[in-house]
Write a structure and sequence with these properties.
Layout: H1 3-17, H2 24-35, H3 43-60, H4 62-73, H5 77-99, H6 101-107, H7 111-131, H8 141-153, H9 161-171, H10 176-204, H11 216-242, H12 249-263
Helix pairs in contact: 1-2, 1-3, 1-11, 2-7, 3-10, 3-11, 4-5, 5-8, 5-10, 7-9, 7-12, 8-9, 9-10, 10-11
């Protein structure tokens, strides 16, 4: 299988699973394990795929982001509350990443652990159906911190970031229309910051060939496909949230986790 096809498959997996509540990191680990990807991998590939999905978020929420920026300039309370909530939500993930960076990286090396954590994601989603309610509450810094704890937990490969954050937001009674925008935008600074730190660390360690081996065609394909699929994924997830159907992915996560847990023994 060519590098281009490898990249396209990984980009589709990343674009779909970054925003659907099924764990993008977990699916990438399992996809590589199942299909035996070796040629197309590494920090450069991860950076390109994440960049594509970040572009998708900015594209989908461009008007909302513009309104927030204008509101900040005009000193509107709602805009500053949202911005502060995003900053507060980052604290748990940043702390966990700094304290347990190596442990988190090693976790991605165990496909069986990823399969188990994917089953945990399934249970979280199904529990949100029972415990979650739309009580019309706003996103506040206090609630954002609790959602941020869920985001930090999702740094483990196999735990869905969107699934965890949306589930806890529903348990907290945050309005469905507020959950989507906050959940998808709160991750932007975390992913950007994390990727920049990884890139700087690679350069510091003398690894200047982060994108070595990636041809322009392969790189552009990964960026474009992850962005397009990511945009469609965000749009679909927003609709599922409005219909209170996102928890159904819990059955999918359980099935995939169980399958891979036993498949990896074969």
């Amino acid at each position: 299988m060519s590098d281009l096809l490898h990249m396209i498959i990984l980009a589709i997996v990343q674009g779909l699973t970054e925003f659907l509540p099924v764990s993008s990191s977990g699916h990438l680990v399992l996809a590589k394990e199942l299909l035996g990807f070796e040629a197309v991998s590494g920090l450069g590939v991860e950076l390109l795929l994440h960049l594509g999905t970040l572009v998708a978020v900015f594209a989908y929420y461009r008007r909302f982001i513009g309104d927030i920026c204008v509101g900040l300039v005009k000193r509107e309370r709602s805009a500053w509350t949202f911005a502060l909530s995003v900053i507060v939500s980052m604290i748990p993930a940043v702390a966990l990443g700094l304290l347990f960076e190596e442990e988190l990286e090693h976790a991605a090396e165990s496909p069986r652990l990823v399969a188990c954590l994917l089953m945990v994601t399934g249970l979280i989603l199904l529990l949100s159906r029972v415990l979650g309610r739309d009580r019309g509450r706003e996103v506040t810094p206090g609630r954002a911190f609790l959602v941020g704890i869920a985001q930090a937990f999702a740094m483990l490969p196999g735990i869905s970031r969107s699934g965890s954050t949306i589930s806890i937001a529903r348990v907290l009674g945050i309005a469905s229309d507020k959950i989507a925008s906050f959940s998808f935008l709160m991750v932007v600074p975390v992913i950007l910051g994390g990727n920049i730190l990884h890139l700087l660390k690679a350069f510091k360690d003398g690894n200047t060939g982060v994108f070595e081996g990636l041809t322009p065609t392969v790189a552009i394909a990964g960026l474009a496909v992850s962005g397009i699929v990511g945009y469609l994924s965000v749009a679909g997830m927003v609709k599922l949230l409005a219909r209170h159907r996102f928890w159904l992915f819990g059955f999918y996560c359980l099935a995939v986790g169980i399958f891979f847990f036993f498949f990896l023994d074969l």
